[in-house]
Each structure stands twice: as C-alpha cells, then as structure tokens.
Amino acid sequence: MTKADRIVSGGTVLLLDEKETVIRDGAVAIMGDRIAAVGKKAEIEAGYASGEIIDAKGGLIMPGLINGHTHAAMTCFRGIADDLPLMDWLNNYIFPAEAKNVNPELAYWGSLLACAEMIKSGTTTFCDMYIFEEETARAAKQAGMRCLVGEVLFDFPSPNCKSPEEGLAYTKKLIEKWAGDPLVNIVVEPHALYTCSPSLLKSAKSLARSYDVPCAVHLLENRAEEAQLREKFGKKASHFLHDIGYLDEKLIAFHCVCLDDEDIRLFRDHGCKVVHNPESNMKLASGVAPVVEMLAGGLAVGLGTDGCASNNNLDLLQEMDTAAKLHKVTRLDPTVMPAETVIRMATSAGARVLGMEKTVGCLKPGMKADIIIIALDKPHLTPMYNEYSHIVYAAGGADVSAVLINGRLVMHDRKLLTIDEDEVMKKTREIAVRIWSSLRKGKH
Amino acid sequence: MTKADRIVSGGTVLLLDEKETVIRDGAVAIMGDRIAAVGKKAEIEAGYASGEIIDAKGGLIMPGLINGHTHAAMTCFRGIADDLPLMDWLNNYIFPAEAKNVNPELAYWGSLLACAEMIKSGTTTFCDMYIFEEETARAAKQAGMRCLVGEVLFDFPSPNCKSPEEGLAYTKKLIEKWAGDPLVNIVVEPHALYTCSPSLLKSAKSLARSYDVPCAVHLLENRAEEAQLREKFGKKASHFLHDIGYLDEKLIAFHCVCLDDEDIRLFRDHGCKVVHNPESNMKLASGVAPVVEMLAGGLAVGLGTDGCASNNNLDLLQEMDTAAKLHKVTRLDPTVMPAETVIRMATSAGARVLGMEKTVGCLKPGMKADIIIIALDKPHLTPMYNEYSHIVYAAGGADVSAVLINGRLVMHDRKLLTIDEDEVMKKTREIAVRIWSSLRKGKH
Question: Which chain B residue has its CA at the smallest distance from A116's CA?
Fold first, then answer.
C-alpha cells in the first residue's frame, strides 16, 4: 500500500479533464504538493494509506478556482464609491484615495484580506496587477495561495515607482527574487495602451521575453478607450499591438469588451489569451465582451473579478453565475455559455490563460493539488440533479467548506488555517479609517 | 420603563423610511408582532425593558426582504435542466416533470424548502404562484413567513384543478379560509394572457375585486409573447388589459420585459405594479425589462427571483446585485439603479407592489416587526464605507445571521427555529429521486 500524505474522500469528484469525468463517492490521494491518484473512494482507500483523511462526504470535490484578473489590495477601497459617472469615480475617489494612501502596509494587508476572501470563496490561484506587488507576493505566500503577480507599469509616477524605468527595474527584481518559487509567479504588466508609451510597452514586452514570463495588459475595456486608441495610433489597437510584436502566446489581455471578429481571429492566430470580467464590466457600464464569439473562435478565455472597487467582492462562484446569464440575455439565446463552459473558464481554461495548464486547473495525477470542497447539505443546494448546474447557478462562495493549495490544507470547515482573519480585518479597518479621512480632507 | 418583548440591539439600523435614516449603534424594540421604537441603542435600552435581547453588534439591522415573484415549490426542480432552448426546456423537462409529479406532498415540502432557503437569505415575505397553493400557505405558516399566495389559473387542467372553474373555486376557498390570517394573504393569479381565455381573465379579476385582494399575472416576459399576444388580440397587450378592466392599483404584473413607454404611462396612470426578475430574464434569455424607464415614469417596481428552475436560487441579495449591474451595462450608464434604489425594490417599494406598504418594508414604530440582521464581521464585507453599497454589491444570502418575522425570531445564528432543515432536505431529495425517474421513463 502506497503512503499518501492526505486523502480527500467521499464526495462527488469533478475532474474537469478532457472527458468531463465525474466520479461519485470518489476520492483524491495527495502526495506532497501533487495529486497522486483520483478514483472511487474504495479504490483509493484500498491503494493508499494516509495519515490525514479530509472528509468530503455529501460534497463536491473540484479543482480550485482561478481568478484571472484582480487588484487584490483594492479590498481596502471596497465600496468607497459606487454608482457614479466613470470619471467622477476615478478622479474624485479612486485616484486620490490611491495617491494618498497606497503604501507597502496597505498593499500587504489589503492583499492578505483579498487572499482570505478568495480562499473562503474557493479561489486557489489569482493573477494580480497593482502597486507594491512584492507585498502582494508576500501576502500570497503567507496565505499559501498560488499567484501570478505583476507591478503596474505606466508613464506617470506611482506611489512605488517614480518612473517607468523604476517600474521595469522593480519588476525585474520581482522576477529574479521569486524565480523557482512553488507558489509565486511573476508577470510583466503594462497598465494599458492609453497609459503607457509605445516605448514603455516595448520595454515591458522585451523584459517579459528575456525571462520567458507572461505579459499582461488591460485592453479595450470600453468604447471610449477604443475610440481614444484609434485616435492615438491612427489604427486599431489590435493592429498596433501586432506591429509592436505584442501578439503571442504569452500575452494576457484583460477585459477585451470591444474586441471585434477580426481582432479575435488575430488573437487566435497568435495564441493570445483573454480574461473576462463580467461583473466589473457591468458595474462600470463598460459593455459586454464578445465572449461567445471568442470561444467560438477558439480563444482561451479565463474569468476574473477585477478589483473590489468595481465589483465589489472576489467571489468567482457568483462571477460564473453572472457570466453564464449575462451572455444569454445579451444574445437572447439561453443555450450560450452553458454551466460547463463557465466552470472551465474558472478552472482548466483559466489555467491555460495564465500559462499554468500543466500545473493546475484539473484533477489528474501529477497535477498540483489545488482542490476545493463545496458543501451541498444546504437548502439552496437541495435537491441536486446536476453538479455543474449547482456550481454555476445555485452555489455561492460561502458554500466552499475546505480548500487545499499545493497539497496544503489552507481552509477547513470554513476556518482559515494560514491567515489570522481577525487580525487582517482589524488592520484593514484601521487603514480604511485613514483612507476615508484623507478623502474628506481633500474635499475641504 | 415600558416592557418590550424583545430588542434587536447594537448594530447599524437602516430604516428604509422616507428620509433614508441610518442609525449607528442603534436598536429596535418589539412589542408583540410590531415595532415599538427605533433609535439609538442607549435610548432604546433606557426606555424599554426586555426579556430577550438579540445582539446585532457589528451588524446591519434592516427590514426583511420581499420576494415579489416566485414559484416556491419549484425548488424540487432546481437545476433539473438548464442552458436549453426555451421550448425544449419547457416541453421536455419542466412541463412533463410537473405533470407527472406535482401533488400536495411536493407542493408542501418544496414550499417548505423554499421557505428555509428564503429565511436563510433574508427574505421575510414572498409572493407565490403555483399549484396546490393551500400547501404553500401551510408551509409558510409552519415557517412563520409572511406571504401572498395564489393558485395558478389557466384554461387547461392542472394537477390540482381540472378546469378554470375549479381553479376559481379553489382560489375562492383559499381567500375565505385565510381571511384575517396574520401571515398568509391570498392573491388571484391568472397565469398569463396566452394561457387564459378572456373569459377566465375576467372571472379572475371579478373574484379579486369582490374580495378586495390583488390580481397578479405574468406579462410580456419576452418578445415571442409580445408578438403572440398582438396577433391574438389584434392590439397591444396593455390595450387589451385596459379594455377588459384589468388596469388598476391591485394589478401586479410579473416580468414586463417588453413594456414600452406608452405601456409605462398607462400603468402609471392606473397605479399598476410591476415585479422585476432580472436573473430569470437573463437565464431564460427573455430580455432586459425597462426598469430604469419604469422608475423614471413613477411605477412601483418590486424585485423577484422567479422559481428555482430558472434562476436557480432564491437569494434576493444576489438578485439586487444583478439588478443593479444589469441595467448599468444595458444602458452603458454606471449611475442608473444605484444601490439605494435596488434595496428599495426589495423592501419598501416591494411592499407597495404587494399592497403591504402599511405593514412591512421599513422599520418604523407601528410596522410589523419583519427584521433581518446581516453579519459584517467577514473578509468580503471588510472594510465598510457605505452600508447600502455593501448590501447590494458585496453581501450574499449567507451573510444574513438572524431573521424576525411578525415579531418572532425564525432564524438565529443561521439556525432555523421554525423548520427542521434536515427533514425538509431529506423529503425533497426523496421527491427529486421520483421526479428524475419519471423523466427518464418518459424518454423510453
């Protein structure tokens, strides 16, 4: 009998593999940071001896969720301003609040709060763009979360970097420091085409290429940006990106609300990746990304929550529900974006988008053990005819009962094992008092 | 010192009164089934002695939510079929499943399961349309929930009533039986204009008038219905309703996706009420109701989840989030449907829609004590700048910690006090096995 470190046992296992395998009364054996075997509970328990059994009886066992785009530390600005015209929201609330308050302390505690929230709603990997990302990496490491993080780069100074050069140098240091880390991965992240000069964009891509890491950018989030970029470049944004050598398999583009059919073909031909953020796009009134067309065109599309100032939570289960429904009503077709498709976006396809498809996103032997359990023994999840349907249309983040990342149990019975929840809430509440006071001062 | 039966004490109280009063460190004193006083904790505790203190420290205290349209017993069909073309979904799943399985047992246990789910997500009042509504009334009474329930009426036989006459007689019995009940109210409910003859519609309205109860109907849920009705009547549905004397303050119309500006004026002039069901409209790809125009036009609009076959849960907090975001993206305007507006739809405006504005929907002395507490001490609700924003954009049903209806505590620390949760889940799971087997048999 082989020795496993732990066995997640007794629930229905959704593998999210190519065959959409579902194993009822199943189990997953874990050795170290990896999945050793997936199968029927009886078989796994006959083949593996384990010191630790994690009981998933009556629950769903599935791959951890992948949040393809967020700004973790912005939990500190959750709900600070809503329902405002975009420019009022940005110029009178978000930008001044950030300029006056973002420092390493906010970045660390805000990111740790985001990790707490993400783990508690089933997310095991997140892709982040913000300021002082060394702190976000530290927080993720503390939380035991997998991540792909990058310092935001733009032409103007940030609270962390006085110039684009400093931003690039900071990013390079991040890449070198975290190289080979089992959880923390680095991405080069120019903010957007309207905030970065072509020269900065090219330097960023060149940095990413030299270390073979992904390069990610906000792209075509709304019509105003589309018009602005066409005016700025005298051509379509996708043509500009093509001309400066951006289109490749390592490009991750966030939002892409205004991608047209030709852009989708161009992205497909070059293997570019997209992250869809439906709730943020709805709340900021950005528009509806053509995700149905992207998927039909063969693009890899992941799912993200965006930051807490524009959502205002990091619950990917809720985001899946919204994604499935939004495209149905937009196209007046109830068959588009079925449950399986949106679950893929938050698991296996999401992993492909981040270049992690050989690591996470499905439950197969050899993959890293990033696993969540969803408890089904609740009125709103009763009865159950179809697991996929329940995950997307009935469950919410609060239904996640246990989370393993890289083979390690980070939440059990909804209790976080790597984060002091009370401490992180206390710290971020103190930071919020300072933020609110800084905004009020600015108004006098 | 006056004696109160109980005091909900120590949280931030949102009154949802005309002045949008918010009382920090507040309390609500309850005598019998009514609110005796709302104020600062110190004042209330100085003025009222109470045997029972319900501690809401660090939480939000607000009026219970009002689900303006659902089919409670359809919890038994939750997730039985999704992502299908409408006619396939209806004709091959929902209708056969209902025809073969709906009986008083399913209606009772399915409704009780819905009550469990609704209480656990903060709903204290629901408006229901289904079959065997005596059982739904019984379940609501058992759960201690406030409701407005009506037997569905149409031209063809239902599992309960062989003819429209039987349906009307059954409704009349319901009205007489439940007259004067503190929780259960009855509504006359012709299903829709495409399933009811003009004669049945007129008899239904006449019955409602003779007992002075509301009359409610599905209306203009999608474009196909709009076209069908125009063809059937040779005029707009709203004109037809006007001509047969339907338009008055007691009319509650569900969905109204295809209401145009003239319809909205006509509805406003006659005081008709509307219930908006955004998630169902999205999932079934029905379209986006012109709620922004309805509100601008002065209509009273409530919020509903619709049944569990088309949502697939009864979580009004999630429904508020979706409502706020859907209209923003549809109109490409982030200022429409602000948080306060959608909270109104689920509380004070929702009460007006159901004719209960003198009873529930806001926290004022003299109103019935339907009160919920939302626990805020959680990562995804931290920090907090604005209570309204958190309710709509960050909270979910699972954040509701306690619920009082008609002065009675029906949930405390998330434990249901009126329903045996395990029993209702066991019963509905047994019913679901029979439903699934009946569908599989039908396919051979």
Answer: B379
Q: Cβ distance B97 to B39 under 8 Å? A: no
User: Which candidate from B282, B324, B378 shows the least CB-CB separation from A326?
Assistant: B282
Q: Is residue B239 part of a domain?
A: yes
Cβ separation B379–A117 shorter than 8 A: yes
- The chain A residue lying nearest B382, using CA atoms, is A425
How crowded is the C-beta side of B441, counted as CA atoms within 13 Å? 10
Q: With contacts defined as CB-CB under 8 Å, which chain B residues touch A338?
A: 82-83
Q: What is the pLDDT of residues A274-328, one digit of tens each?
A: 999 999 999 999 999 999 999 999 999 999 999 999 999 999 999 999 999 999 9
- Inter-chain touch A328–B284, beta carbons under 8 Å: yes
Alpha-carbon gap, residue A325 to A389, rounded angstroms: 12
Give the end-to-end CA distance of chain B in Å, rounded to a whole number. 72
Q: What is the CATH number of the domain that holds B148?
A: 3.20.20.140
Amino acid identity for residue B144 in this structure: G
Q: Do A79 and B386 touch (CB under 8 A)?
A: yes
Contacts of A318 in chain B (CB under 8 A): 318, 321, 396
Interface A-B, measured as beta-carbon pairs within 8 A, has a size of 212
The predicted model scores a pTM of 0.98
Q: Is residue B218 part of a domain?
A: yes
Residue A19, domain extent: 2-63+362-413
The pLDDT tens digits of the residues spanning A22-78 come to 999 999 999 999 999 999 999 999 999 988 999 999 999 999 999 999 999 999 999
The contacts of residue A70 (CB under 8 Å, 6+ apart) are A114, A126, A127, A128, A129, A304, A305, A306, A307, A314
